[in-house]
Amino acid sequence: GALASKSSKILIVGGGGTMGSSTALHLARRGFTDIRILDVYPIPSKNSAGYDLNKIAGADAIGLFGGSSDAAWDAWASDPVFTPYAHDVGKLDLSTGDTPRAKRLREKYEKLKSLGRTDVEWLANEDDIKRKAPHLKNADIAGWRGLYCGTGGWVAAADALNSVGNELQKLGVKNAFGSSGTFSSLLLKEDGSVRGVKTIDGTEWEADLVVLAAGAWSPVLVDLDGQCVSKCWVYAHIQLTPEEAEAMKGIPTMYNDKYGFFFEPREDSHLLKLCNEFPGYTNYQTVQPFGALKPIKLSVPRSHAQNPTDTMPTESLDEIKRLIKITLPHLEGRELINQAMCWCTDTDDAQWLLTEHPRFKGLVLATGDSGHTFKMLPVVGKEVADLIEGKLSEEKRHLWRYRPGAGDPNGTGRGGPDPKDLSELDGWKHD
Ligand code: FAD
After folding, report:
1. Domains present along the chain, CATH in parentheses
2. Pocket of ligand 1, candidates 373, 376, 380, 414: which has the most ligand atoms within 8 Å of its Cβ, to mutate?
3. Ligand 1: which of 369, 376, 422 to mutate, judged by most atoms within 8 Å of the beta carbon?
4. For the whole prediction, is pTM greater than 0.80?
5. N or C terminus of the chain: which is more exposed, having fewer CB within 10 Å?
């Protein structure tokens, strides 16, 4: 059944970020009249994993998100809140050699073809790739292969969040940012159900329903029984000259599962963003989330906004340099600026956690982004709104249910090696 009605008082913790702002947008568009977003920073929140120049987005995910990633690109391309931030330059999803992943990409290609898609191409070798991506003409990519998808490319992430923020204001969504927006605990009724949120300045915000969409902070704020492991990934920029940026205008987003990825440079700043690809880093600390009976060991995000001198571990920086050397050799040796770590939270099966917390009636969880949810910004809130209105399909309710034990206390859910802990790594801390 429905968890709230259109006149219910709803608080969204993390409403300045991706899943939270999308939830607010969909609820407001459906006519919910009393919504307030809470966040540490004003939207676009500087703590959001989406506070970034660009993110990969496309229409070629199969089986994830209950099948809704094509719908996401449709929304990027048609909803006026999002269209100015969608860059339909296409996308290369590449692998090195005859790997299991290359095989999966080939299967995905076959599947997309069988669905009648004409915007996908199989790139069998270096020459095929260089035809699609002339900017890789000097790249050392013998043996690479993969999928080209002409729909999608990248989205201007923080700008899109900002646009959602403007729309929320127009729709009458209220907010509280800073210490009056920073969650400190739930407020419970005598029967244990939720009656609101207390923030770190002592404000007690009353509510009929609370949505927890605090990204990597979610498992630190409220006990989620080990279902989410927060990890960081990293990025750096190269300041291109206007001429260098012009030469890379319109390039498809380039992703390789071993070496990393990069994007068309930004037109405004001429910044080129690069990321390596790896299992993420944890930051284990002893903390006591709301609802935990005693302090527990959890990976706790370390905010870049609050630790602006943090850069990235040397091994990641070396991998980004390797990516440049292999794919863009003319930029080898250039300074890597704006280095940062940014935080997501992984579930074991990489599916969202979108459900009511079984111990706290009136608390809806909208988290477990698993590092691939920015592309879903226009549509993830629809799923949360469906959950709140009792309209989510049985299949999706099952996919996104509360599922401890299916969780992964070691954070190995992505496959591949275990994530390293920041405490084992050097080069990132400068305070
Ligand atoms: P966030 O957007 O991080 O929002 C969480 C919010 O909670 C923040 O605004 C934060 O300030 C707030 N918060 C925290 N603590 C509190 C508190 N105590 N009280 C109130 N509010 C609080 N995804 C893609 O789809 N494509 C990509 O190419 C891609 N690339 C990525 C590259 C990197 C380097 C990283 C780190 C992530 C990438 N992602 C990508 C993942 C994507 O950014 C995340 O999956 C998504 O942004 C997470 O959304 P969220 O709403 O769960 O969390």
Report:
1. 9-90+151-424 (3.50.50.60)
2. 373
3. 369
4. yes
5. N
